[in-house]
Specification:
Length: 270
């Protein structure tokens, strides 16, 4: 796997597929680029997809927040992702990775050939809805735990709400330790899901994306995800939506085949 310095961060990445169409896939918090392999490998004759590990994830170098302004991690992740784009790409993102993909698409719509957003956690797009109001107290509690240094309990709750559905105790010890360590990143990133530091939701921003967009969520995910997809879709000129039966937030891992088929349909639209 290649490994080089991108935007000052040592970044690990790989290429999946040998197709003529360049693609870029961005993973979620606590994930890694390799999680895309089962989703993208079936599309390998059509696309060559770069998947990279976000800072502090997978085999990329650790990322330690010091005194940084709000949204610094999201901006860095966006800059790293953009550094891989040399011509219009099929851009794919999951969860936090979908926010990064949207931020690129709004800033440089000409760089995007198609856009697939899986469970985007851009909660700012659903501000003041019933789903937002339900989620906000849970987020406040999570942030309080992290501020108090109770990272294990924060990790337990985060995985419970946004993981694959396994009990915390069922996860391997090394994975639990990794998730606990990564809570410092979550503490920096999570408020941006509500505050939109990239100004993605600004008037006219989403509307200028002219590539075909597909929004995907699972029917067992937290209700806020469906509301976010609905709110974003309402502002896009060329959009499709899909709900995957039986899937929760981590559907790229649990429903890889279904997601691969949906992405293939979106590729055909561009």
């Amino acid at each position: 796997m290649p490994r080089d310095i991108r935007q000052g961060a040592e970044t690990n990445w790989q290429v999946i597929g040998e197709g003529e169409r360049p693609a870029l896939a961005i993973h979620c918090m606590l994930g890694a680029g390799e999680m895309w392999a089962p989703v993208l490998a079936p599309l390998g004759a059509q696309i060559s997809a770069i998947t990279f590990d976000l800072p502090g994830h997978g085999k990329s170098a650790p990322w330690t927040p010091e005194t940084v302004e709000p949204g610094a991690y999201q901006r860095l992740a966006t800059q790293i992702a953009a550094s891989f784009i040399e011509r219009p790409v099929d851009l794919i993102g999951h969860s936090f990775g979908a926010i990064v993909a949207l931020r690129i698409a709004v800033a440089a719509p000409e760089a995007v050939r198609s856009l697939t957003l899986v469970e985007p956690v851009l909660f700012a797009a659903a501000r003041n809805t019933a789903e937002w109001n339900t989620l906000r107290p849970h987020q406040d509690h999570l942030e309080a735990l992290m501020a108090a240094g109770e990272h294990e309990e924060a990790a337990r709750r985060f995985v419970r709400d946004w993981g694959v559905g396994l009990p915390w105790e069922a996860l391997p010890a090394h994975q639990r330790a990794q998730f606990i360590a990564q809570m410092a990143i979550i503490a920096e990133v999570a408020p941006g899901n509500f505050d939109d530091p990239g100004n993605i939701c600004r008037e006219g921003g989403l509307e200028q994306i002219d590539a075909p967009v597909l929004l995907v969520h699972g029917d067992r995910s937290p209700p806020i995800t469906a509301r976010v997809c609905e709110s974003i879709a309402a502002r896009l000129p060329d959009v499709g939506t899909a709900c995957v039966p039986g899937a929760g937030h981590m559907l790229p891992l649990t429903h890889a085949q279904q997601l691969s088929e949906l992405i293939a349909l979106n590729l055909d639209r561009s």
